[in-house]
Amino acid sequence: MTSRGKKILGMVPSCSSETSFENNLQQIEETIVQEPLFDSDDSVKDADYLPDSDDSVKYTDYIPDPSSPENSDPGHRLAMNTGTTPEENTFPVTNDGEEIHQKNSWKKNVRKNKKNAGDPYINSKGHHVPGRFLGEPCNNSCRIKCSTRIRQEERTNIFISYWNLSNIDRQRDFVNNSVEVTDCKRRTTATPNNLRRFKSMKFYLKIKDSRINVCRTMLLNTLGIKKGFLNFAIKKRILPSNITEKDKRGGYGTTKIPDAALDFLKQHIKKFPTVASHYCRKDSRKMYLDPKLNIKQMYRLYKEECTKENKEYLKESYYRHIFRTHFSLSFHKPRKDQCPTCTSYEAANAESKASMLEQYNFHIKNKERARNEKNLDKAEAKETPEKIHSANFDLQQVLYVPTDPTNPILFYKTKLATYNFTIFNCGNNIGKCYMWSEVEGSRGPCEIASCLFHHLKSLPASIENVRLFSDTCGGQNKNQFVAAMFIYAVQVLQINIIDQKFLVSGHSQMECDSMHARIETVAKNVPVYLPHEWVSIAQRAKQNNPKYQVFQKADIGFLDWKTLAKLIMVNRNKDADGNVVNWHHIKWIRYEKESPFEMKIKTDLDEDFRSIMILPRRGRRVTVGSMEACLKPLHTEKKPISALKLKHLKEICNSGSVPEDCRLFFTNLLAEEGIQDETVVPDVNDPEEENFFSQ
């Protein structure tokens, strides 16, 4: 194997295309926007969040616009590689009544609805058309004397009932049921050519169960219609049922799209890799596409494919129609950017808001309390950095290789994942990135615990109290394996107390999110072919000092914390008083050196600590040595990937989308049948998380 091949396999940044990659990064650094927008997987669009700034980041510029389209789509922590072949990609038709096009809000339909309801409106020429009104009854010269037979109140009720129909077909039916048409019984002339009419009409208004004979003027004025409408309705009646022929204006045309063209369009949409929604996958069948895609871009690729195969392409409007009505698809935007509690409250009507107010106020109180707690910890860490360490951490959305914004072929293929776990030190504004590819590890709790342990070991010996903030993701941050690591760390390191605190779900924006945003901004216009190139991007993402510190798997040393958790986490579900502990509600966990196998918890930041004795006082004795003996390397060999992913990566290499000297890395990857690509991580909104500690 060439030295180049060995270096690629070792993720050492040295390929002959490295010069081009470095040049691209240099160009991006020269033009990069100093304040990138938040667009990370775990950032939160919280308009009133205003963290302190470091020397080079203006966090006020990160406050998002609530009306931004980024706040509109569900889905959270979605990896785009699902292991589904394009040929087998099947998407359910939306059957939950969702209507992508809000047709009732179209101007022409608003105009039509107002007209049919008798309301004033602006016509297509911009002229104001007054609403319909109840006319005067017929005068005293009426032979039938209608005004003496029907009271004004009854006329008003008929007028309201008629216009409440708000449908022209139903209104014509109403008119036809109020008119009887018969042959003329008496004629005043014997010459057929001079006859004025061949039919006679009688008009009625229904009052309760009676039909009152009225004159035409009374009928027209009571309904607020004109003579032309009356005559046209009679002309369109279908005898003998008196039902009016359906209005044929509007609706869909008769143009038939060829089946072959429609099938080709559908097959093109099915080629794009998808992932299920993690937040609501039990209640919804909606699938999500790569967030870098949009319909316009998909349509452009569709046109290119049609041109290559000498096929006539359909219009973009029809492409959009098929996409929205035949597929339950959307483009992934981080759902964690929206708080479900706040969103539900804001979308509720006045009556529902009243019933939700108490819960909403409690939610806002918890949000503000957690944020204040975080700010207090940050302030104390800045005042006494030699004793108190305050930081927050999060896992960035999955980074993929190879990526190239100019290469459409990559949109159709599953790619290799790279993970980036970030820790931001609030005391000195130093950010750390822990990066590894999916062949080196997954994004499970053992990897996260290992990164945190590496960080704790690097702290100065004078640090006595560590305070960590994160979101409430059960699969990464709030679980028995991370808890076991903290219990071990507080015993073997110089630290006396470790406080693990959790922000409120939906309001967990942290400084480490700015690290994600910087990395994504730098990589936005740069092709990335190998995992180690993400390391170079992270190292250059911040222009001012202190730069981000980047660690790879060899630096971290992933450990298997599951055996340790099995040894010491015996009791996880009951506190010292015998009360059941719901881990989903925990807001604060404290680990103390003087209480080796005790966890102190709070489900409300303002309450007193409750104790959980994770290890019974009686029984086997656990020592630091026995705990150390449990810690083994998590992965001794590179992990295989799915056969489908390897197939796609080789196809990408063979297509020339990857530089020749970068292909050896992908061709040397191992694959196994039956491996499913990792899609999502258990999260706070998943009911399964509540049972995560009891596994």
Total beta-strand segments? 24
Parts with pLDDT < 50 across at least 5 consecutive residues:
1-14, 31-99, 278-283, 679-695
Assign the structural class, choosing from mainly alpha, mainly beta, alpha/beta, alpha+beta, or little secondary structure. alpha+beta
Q: Overall 3D geometry?
A: elongated
Radius of gyration: 35 Å
Distance between the termini: 45 Å
Q: Give the biggest sheet.
A: 10 strands, mixed
Fraction in helix: 25-40%
Strand content: 5-15%
Number of domains: 2
Average pLDDT number? 81
Describe the fold and architecture:
- Helix 5 packs across helix 7 (227-235), helix 11 packs antiparallel against helix 12 (350-383) and helix 14 packs across helix 18.
- This protein has two domains: 3-82 and 340-359 and 375-694, no CATH class; 104-187 and 198-244, no CATH class.
- It has 21 helices and 24 strands.
- With 695 residues, it is an alpha+beta fold.
- Helices cover 33% and strands 15% of the residues.
- Strand 6 (237-238) and strand 7 (243-244) form a beta hairpin.
- Strands 11, 12, 13, 14, 15, 16, 17, 19, 20 and 21 form a ten-stranded mixed β-sheet that branches.
- Residues 81-93 have a biased composition (Polar residues).
- This is DUF7869 domain-containing protein.
- It holds the Pfam family DUF7869.
- Residues 464-552 form the DUF7869 domain.
- Residues 34-104 are annotated as: Disordered.
